[in-house]
Design goal:
Length: 371
């Protein structure tokens, strides 16, 4: 499902600003951005892609059990996350790696989970309110909606204080829209007029199921069906992602209720490294989206604004340095004690956990020499 007449695009695939009826209301959000802010967009996207490629290589070499690529979806994530204020809360699925890095999460924390050394996790309060990865498809939309309902109850919405008014972003994919959790989240969000943005990254494939089979209409219309104002954007356009998200977050914080954004993007790689997309995807579709690469078009835009070659070289070096750093650190990670499986199941000591911990210890001891 490529772009439609409703798709908001601020930056063309050729890297030029788009002036249209749909884009005019959002262009002021872009015009206020400094060169430094624009350069940060590019830096995050390029460094993330280098991290993504290196992580996939590590998995192929046996250093990770699995990797979930985000190649091609950098603009949707960087633009939307950059629109959030410090007090906002972001609820990811499991592919929002660049937002994690932008929020100060150590990349090794992410990789250790995919290496099988931890259950993942970080304290959102220490990482710009970026919440934990959610592997259960679509359930994070319920978590986000519940949190947003709490913000209403706490009086942190619509006060007019820009440092107090708070909103929530829930990230999810096109496959998640077929889950009941997402529909339930939108029911409650619309009913309670929660301060949140549902941010759908439509990457066109729910593993091997195309979005055309999941929905006969554009997915942004799902939000409209629940009474939630909705918009479809070019998700490979970082400017559109930023501007439209900021406008909708502003509305949510002001007490105008939830919003729904469908970002049309494309999963250039596999769903995960256990998947082989060549079995079900057409090369012509891949080529269509390769010509709309979010990084290439934004680099063209920045060069036209006078960005120097040294700027691009510095970012490439930063990406290479990060790749080298994670490769070194991932191979140095110690294997945790098996007993840590039980450490955080309950906040207080629990007899069932104690019994299971002892049963595992006895089982492992049975393999010791001379036992």
């Amino acid at each position: 499902m490529p772009y439609t007449a409703a798709t908001v695009q601020l930056l063309s695939p050729e890297g030029t600003l788009v002036h249209s009826d749909a884009s005019e209301q959002y262009l002021p959000y872009v015009e206020k951005l400094s060169d430094d802010a624009l350069h940060e967009f590019h830096r995050h996207m390029v460094v993330m892609r280098r991290f993504d490629i290196e992580s996939a290589n590590l998995q192929r070499q046996g250093q990770l059990a699995l990797w979930v690529p985000s190649h091609g979806q950098e603009a949707a994530q960087v633009g939307s996350a950059s629109a959030a204020k410090p007090q906002d809360h972001l609820f990811p699925s499991y592919r929002e790696h660049v937002i994690a890095l932008m929020s100060g999460v150590d990349p090794i924390t992410i990789l250790s989970m995919f290496r099988g050394l931890s259950h993942g996790g970080w304290d959102p309060q220490d990482h710009d309110n970026f919440h934990l990865y959610t592997l259960v498809i679509g359930s994070q939309t319920l978590h986000a909606t519940g949190y947003a309902m709490g913000l209403n109850l706490d009086g942190r919405v619509g006060t007019g204080d820009p440092d107090k008014d708070t909103a929530v972003i829930a990230y999810f994919g096109d496959g998640a829209t077929s889950q009941g959790d997402v529909s339930e989240a939108m029911v409650f969000a619309a009913s309670y007029q929660t301060p949140q943005v549902f941010f759908l990254q439509n990457n066109h494939w729910a593993i091997s199921v195309p979005v055309s089979r999941q929905s006969r209409t554009p997915l942004y219309l799902r939000g409209e069906g629940f009474g939630i104002p909705s918009v479809q954007i070019d998700g490979n356009d970082v400017l559109a992602s930023f501007a439209v998200t900021e406008a909708n977050l502003d509305a949510a914080r002001a007490g105008q209720g939830p919003r729904f954004i469908e970002a049309l993007t494309y999963r250039m790689g596999a769903h995960t490294t256990s998947d082989d997309p060549s079995k079900y995807r057409d090369n012509s579709e891949l080529e269509f989206w390769a010509q709309r690469d979010p990084i290439t078009r934004f680099e063209t835009f920045l060069r036209a604004r006078g960005a120097s070659q040294s700027f691009f070289d510095e970012i490439a070096t930063e990406g290479d340095d990060l790749a080298a750093d994670i490769r070194k650190r991932i191979t140095e990670l110690p294997v945790p004690a098996s007993s840590t499986l039980f450490d955080h199941v309950y906040s207080d000591p629990h007899p069932v956990m104690d019994a299971q911990r002892q049963a595992l210890a006895d089982f492992e001891a049975s393999f010791e020499e001379g036992h």
